[in-house]
């Protein structure tokens, strides 16, 4: 990082002495002799640090400090004076000065202060970069009418305390919606805690959500806070809430109604202040009819419903998504610069994307890795995209026996379903109502492999 320092002092000897020390440290220096010149120079030079003399003719240092802070509230200013007093130092600090140095300047103290200031500046810069990266990662990309409707609801509901139930297919972006609501809420500075209810065994979901006390069950070797406690003051995102056990549903309902949770094995309840956002790919009203989901919990969660459209319903967003996924991947992978031709993007736009946005992202990364040229072509899309059923249909017509037909059809069907579920074997087996062990055997039998990412 190029470090820049602005020196403001009406004594040329002081300006020259500081310039010599600073430039020896590899710092870019600009110096001016008055407060009025400093106010003109500051917006163009944009220094990381300012050395400002207290006693100057015309506009003095304290006046200049106040004006600089109006121009840039984050300005880092060190006051210097040959007539330092406690009162002046206190007033400068109240006006926003970072520190106060007395003349003649001690070089060792000056260098230590420089090091501390630049460490702080670089830390702040890194924090902002990380915030930008995180924000980019969870941005909702799209300009289609379908996604604009979702964004409109997010904008309205985010500032409120209302609970939200997000529905949509796997991979459509339900987590992004939940994070966008959290970011737009008064709780944005507090934790966002995610729980995938489908990925946690039913016997452990209560411990995961509500915590446990040491010795409350086999393997509970220490007290542990649950997700509700971890999200206190923030947002708890219950993903795949339709897969939650009946016992856990009852406890979640109590937590929502009373604002308290009880760890497994505990006798005392703990108050929590949590906004709950839930998501599911199931039709919870059908689940209620089948007695698999509590109706009272459904109405507690479904205060504001948001249905996330599948990618096939927003094909016009595919070019924007391709550009974002390609930029993200190229920035982090170090494989160089690659672009997508119009033909390639058009080919991607025509696909149905059963795995939705998640499948598109995986496909973009695969194309960037496996395509040989600096531009991904339409032919690359046809050659390298996986999970499409068109080649399977051609293979079926070429079968000579019924047994061969069954095997080709089964292989293509399983490959498509695995791609649809982002190769989550447990989720695919559950949807196919097939034992997971059987699905693993089929994967081994047909030599099915997840495409390279």
Describe the protein:
- The chain is built from 20 helices and 16 strands.
- The protein is of the alpha/beta class.
- The chain folds into 4 domains: 4-134, Rossmann fold (3-Layer(aba) Sandwich); 157-309, Rossmann fold (3-Layer(aba) Sandwich); 313-382, Helicase, Ruva Protein, domain 3 (Orthogonal Bundle), CATH 1.10.8; 390-446, Arc Repressor Mutant, subunit A (Orthogonal Bundle), CATH 1.10.10.
- Strands 2-1-3-4-5 form a 5-stranded parallel β-sheet, sandwiched between helices. Strands 7-10-13-6-14 form a 5-stranded parallel β-sheet. It has a two-stranded antiparallel ribbon with strand order 8-9.
- Residues 126-135 have low confidence and may be disordered.
Question: What is the top-level CATH class of the largest domain?
Answer: Alpha Beta
**How large, in whole angstroms, is the Cα Rg?**
30 Å
Unreliable parts: 126-135
Strand-pairing-aware structural class:
alpha/beta
Which sequence of strands runs across the widest sheet?
A: 2-1-3-4-5
Task: Map the helices and strands.
Layout: E1 4-8, H1 12-24, E2 28-32, H2 35-45, E3 49-53, H3 61-71, E4 77-81, H4 86-94, E5 99-102, H5 107-137, H6 145-157, E6 164-167, H7 174-183, E7 192-196, H8 205-210, E8 211-212, E9 224-225, H9 227-230, E10 235-239, H10 246-258, E11 260-261, E12 270-271, E13 275-280, H11 284-289, H12 295-301, E14 304-307, H13 318-333, E15 339-340, H14 342-350, H15 356-370, E16 375-376, H16 378-384, H17 390-397, H18 402-420, H19 425-432, H20 436-446
Parallel strand pairs: 1-2, 1-3, 3-4, 4-5, 6-13, 6-14, 7-10, 10-13, 15-16
Antiparallel strand pairs: 8-9, 11-12
Helix pairs in contact: 2-3, 13-15, 14-16, 17-18
């Amino acid at each position: 990082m190029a470090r820049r320092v602005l020196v403001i002092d009406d004594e040329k000897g002081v300006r020259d002495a500081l310039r010599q020390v600073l430039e020896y440290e590899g710092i870019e220096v600009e110096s001016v002799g008055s407060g009025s010149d400093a106010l003109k120079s500051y917006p163009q030079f944009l220094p990381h640090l300012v050395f400002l003399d207290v006693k100057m003719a015309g506009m003095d240092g304290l006046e200049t400090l106040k004006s600089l802070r109006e121009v840039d509230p984050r300005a880092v200013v060190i006051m210097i004076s040959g007539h330092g007093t406690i009162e002046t130092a206190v007033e400068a600090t109240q006006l926003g000065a970072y520190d106060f140095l007395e003349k003649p300047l001690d070089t060792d103290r000056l260098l230590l202060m420089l090091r501390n200031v630049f460490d702080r500046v670089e830390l702040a810069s890194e924090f902002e970069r990380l915030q930008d990266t995180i924000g980019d990662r969870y941005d909702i990309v799209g300009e289609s009418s379908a996604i604009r409707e979702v964004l409109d609801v997010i904008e309205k509901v985010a500032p409120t305390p209302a609970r939200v139930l997000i529905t949509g297919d796997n991979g459509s972006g339900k987590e992004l919606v939940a994070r966008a609501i959290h970011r737009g809420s008064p709780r944005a500075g507090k934790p966002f805690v995610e729980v995938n209810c489908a990925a946690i065994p039913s016997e452990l979901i209560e411990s995961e959500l509500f915590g446990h006390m040491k010795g409350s069950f086999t393997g509970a070797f220490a007290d542990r806070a649950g997700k509700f406690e971890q999200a206190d003051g923030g947002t708890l995102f219950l993903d795949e809430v339709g897969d939650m056990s009946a016992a856990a549903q009852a406890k979640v309902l109590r937590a929502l109604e009373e604002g308290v949770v009880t760890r497994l094995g505990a006798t005392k309840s703990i108050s929590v202040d949590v906004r709950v956002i839930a998501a599911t790919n199931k039709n919870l009203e059908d689940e209620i009819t089948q007695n698999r989901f509590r109706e009272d919990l459904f109405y507690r969660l479904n205060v504001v419903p948001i249905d996330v459209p599948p990618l096939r319903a927003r094909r016009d967003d595919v070019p924007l998504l391709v550009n974002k996924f390609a930029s993200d991947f190229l920035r982090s992978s170090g494989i160089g610069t690659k672009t997508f031709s119009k033909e390639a993007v058009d080919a991607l736009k025509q696909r149905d994307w059963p795995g939705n946005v998640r499948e598109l992202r995986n496909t973009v990364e695969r194309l960037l890795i496996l395509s040989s040229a600096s531009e991904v072509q339409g032919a690359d899309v046809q050659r390298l995209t996986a999970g499409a059923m068109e080649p399977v249909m051609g293979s079926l017509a070429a079968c000579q026996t019924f047994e061969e037909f069954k095997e080709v059809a089964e292989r293509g069907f399983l490959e498509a379903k695995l791609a649809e579920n982002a190769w989550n074997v447990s989720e695919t087996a559950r949807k196919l109502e097939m034992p997971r062990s059987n699905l693993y055997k089929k994967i081994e039998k047909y030599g099915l492999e997840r495409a390279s990412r």
